[in-house]
Design a protein that fits this description.
Gyrase A, domain 2; single chain; five-stranded antiparallel sheet; mainly alpha; 2 domains
Amino acid sequence: MNVSRKAMFALAFVVLELSFWSIFLQIAGSKMGVIPELFYGFLVALVVSIAISLVADRGASVVSIAKNHRLLLMIIAIGLVNNALTQLFLAAGTLGTNPSISAIVYRGYVIIVALLLPFMLKQKVKSMQLLASVIGFVGVYVVISGGTLVNISMATAPAMALLIFAGLCTTSVQLFFNKYNFNAAGGVVIFNLASLVFISLLAAATQTSLGIAFTPSSAVAVLFLGAFGYALGPFMVYYVIRAFGPLLFGNAVVTVPFFTILFAALLTATPIEPYYLVAALLIGAGVIIQRSYASRQERITKNKALDRFTIFDVTGVFISNKSPTIMKGIAGENRAFAIRLSGGGLEEKTHADVFNKYGCISFTNKRPHASATSDEIRSINEAMKLNDEETALIGIGHPDGLESAFAEFISTSGSRGEDERLWRQ
């Protein structure tokens, strides 16, 4: 199974898991209350995520994160925002509406992702992508207005607001996932530990009793939310976001409302209102448009030497690479960028000396790094749509260093009298 197939399998798993999420939130929340539901869910998640970490690397990733205080604080903050706050808002919003409405409104965060990409990740967003996001937002508004497009029910407005807040929390975390690299197995353990502590403190502050008598349905719901929603789910989401990027991932998972509407009708007898389907179709149209224009992540640069080139962000290609050299190279804020060159006669020393100067790794698809797999190189070729006569120059390191290295390489190559036709935008 190559990298792209692994990522597609993970994406399919995430979509199905998220499709049941709102349904089980309502089942557990209606029988137990929001805070007890989250407490026991995060308790189960902590146990499962520890088991995943032990299987993945015997807990080494948790120890590594704990030793890096700055990274530890970042991951704790992510856990509180993505797990504790998002789930608190989402659970309360779902109880105030129903699973179908919850799934549709919450998934509207994709428009925010598209609008923030140029500012947070310096990635280009095409006009058609923005149009697709607007179409998706219209679908969300159809639900908020109860299908009228005019009146918003004041009875459900607070719950709708909570669902929107949950989406804002998810947006910030997904952009963070794509900007920073860390070990997901260890990170999810920290997420759940921080969330469990937060919910415990919230229960104490609100004097909420955690002594709950479980029913069969609430027990199944809590086990699902804990094991899949808060433990295995975030691990898979992190992998998928790194592989596809936050915009394409966000657009793919907005298909979740279609499945949630169906599953909610089958499992909880939630009625299927005609405007649910209209909203879901609008969001689905947005997904199709986005998938057509978001296949390549292109970086925005102010470096004039790079004006004639498209910088491709190919960091996600290396998400499954086990090489210490590659993983260290894309750790933290570091990225993997590539530009297209016409002609394949590049000498390794020509670019290696320049990139080493800026603390970066460089190689080409014709002469790849020893730790880069053939599947990874193939994925880069496909993403950049290279033909046999074109070469991808790939650099790994800090984004600022990479831009400087690419710019110097282009400038010095030109100053040595190389044929200007060598370069092709």
